[in-house]
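stage 2 :: seqdesign
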């Protein structure tokens, strides 16, 4: 890999940061610590991909607000929320907003490590999906207007004759456009072609 994923640990408690950073590093994870959400956001331009572990209650920007800002900036960093006693309602709110997990203090080491593995796996899958979307979008952009019309018909499940009738062209012309679409999209089957289109159309628009 060009770079390993990084666990970004955010907590205003020095002791918590040091203890968790030691645990994560000893378990083989790359870790970067931040004393506050504001400090993390100030360094966002240099933040490596990975995941975020953040306390829910912190001075200034709390864990929920941090999560909202990450989502607004479309950074795609999975978030794990740490909560103290009585903060479970806040953790549930964070989960509803897309957090991967929440850990109620005090939690055991394995609970944290499991949550981190899940978060990093989610990050890797999201990165692969983003690459797939980018590639498919570029291929779609290479299609002509007529090829896009034929593609829409194929995705709708229409046979060549129906597409030909709707576009007022011959079935043979549809076959030619269909072959061009398959080649330009790099699809070996109709099902693969349809899946590529669905991947793009279901992805958020930048």
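stage 2 :: out
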């Amino acid at each position: 890999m060009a770079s390993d994923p990084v666990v970004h640990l955010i907590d205003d408690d020095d002791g918590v940061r040091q203890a968790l950073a030691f645990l994560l590093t000893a378990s083989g994870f790359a870790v970067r610590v931040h004393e506050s959400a504001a400090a993390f956001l100030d360094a966002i331009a240099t933040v490596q991909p990975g995941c975020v572990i953040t306390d829910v209650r912190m001075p200034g920007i709390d864990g929920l607000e941090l999560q909202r800002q990450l989502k607004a900036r479309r950074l795609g960093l999975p978030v794990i929320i740490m909560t103290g006693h009585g903060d479970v309602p806040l953790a549930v709110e964070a989960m509803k907003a897309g957090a991967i997990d929440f850990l109620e203090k005090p939690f055991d080491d394995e609970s944290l490590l499991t949550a981190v593995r899940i978060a990093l796996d989610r990050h890797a899958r999201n990165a692969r999906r983003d690459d797939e979307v980018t590639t498919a979008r570029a291929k779609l952009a290479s299609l002509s207007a007529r090829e896009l019309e034929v593609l829409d018909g194929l995705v709708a499940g229409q046979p060549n004759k129906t597409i030909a009738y709707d576009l007022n062209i011959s079935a043979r012309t549809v076959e030619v456009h269909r072959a061009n679409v398959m080649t330009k999209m790099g699809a070996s089957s109709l099902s693969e072609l349809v899946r590529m289109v669905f991947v793009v159309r279901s992805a958020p628009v930048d």
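stage 3 :: structure notes
- The radius of gyration is 23 Å.
- The chain has a mean pLDDT of 89.
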